[in-house]
């Protein structure tokens, strides 16, 4: 049974001969499993060069992609959740928040910023799924409302990029109240005739889909995004029937009238610029 034993002791592989590469240089496409060079992937707007799969990215990447020279000012970036319900699951909510903040370097699951898209001033709110599943708590509601105030004061259009599992369980009813709060605020934007585009990315579900993500003057999506309220498994179990092919995927959602168009991320910036220019009513000076 000698083949269970090393024939020589102390066999070590030198670092330069190892097959694995340092972190951050390569990424694997979750769809086609091809290994992609991080630098090229970034240049390609985080869209797989092999299969066009849109990899999940966060607010920082979207701001870099959309804003000219990647320059922007953050709105209400310092807001942090409280713990009004003193919620405990596998850990205390304040501990979970603190750990997540440390891990992600973010203060909450959404960031709001103002900057230029091809020279056109725009307010963009973008969610981070890495922060408790992009969940909607009081901070998300407040940040979006302050972003809308900023739009109203300056007559700038609004883009919200959703990537979320929905309401934040740890804030219970307070989390659900954000749906009404943001929806009401969006009415003011509509009254001021300022356009709002909602971009739904993979995944957009729960209370966010059930409120502001579907209230855009245009609701648009990235290819292949999962969009729905409840997940497919829950629906299947509830209705006791098999679901049609492509159910809750962007194409399916568009065919059924919930999306205006689907846009490849590489064309997102230009498409947004053109659309906002078309929708924006020039402010008439009194
Ligand atoms: Zn791929």
Task: Characterize the structure shown.
There is one protein chain. Strand 6 (158-164), helix 5 and strand 7 form a beta-alpha-beta unit. The strands form two sheets. A seven-stranded mixed β-sheet has the order 3-4-5-6-7-8-9, sandwiched between helices. It is 33% helix and 17% strand. With 286 residues, it is α/β, with parallel strands linked by helices. It contains nine helices and nine strands. The structure holds zinc ion. Zinc ion binds at residues 29, 31-32, 34, 48, 50-51, 53.
Task: Describe the structure using short key phrases.
286 residues, alpha/beta, 2-enoyl-CoA Hydratase, Chain A, domain 1, two-stranded antiparallel sheet, 9 strands, globular, binds zinc ion
Number of strands: 9
Q: Percent range for helical residues? A: 25-40%
CATH topology of the largest domain: 2-enoyl-CoA Hydratase, Chain A, domain 1
Q: Number of folding domains?
A: 2
List the helices and strands and how they pair.
Blueprint: E1 26-28, E2 35-37, H1 38-43, H2 59-66, E3 72-75, H3 93-104, E4 110-117, E5 120-127, H4 138-154, E6 158-164, H5 172-191, E7 196-204, H6 206-209, E8 218-221, H7 232-239, H8 250-255, E9 261-262, H9 268-279
Parallel strand pairs: 5-6, 6-7, 7-8, 8-9
Antiparallel strand pairs: 1-2, 3-4, 4-5
Helix pairs in contact: 4-5
The structure holds zinc ion (ZN).
Residues 29, 31-32, 34, 48, 50-51, 53 line the site of zinc ion (ZN).
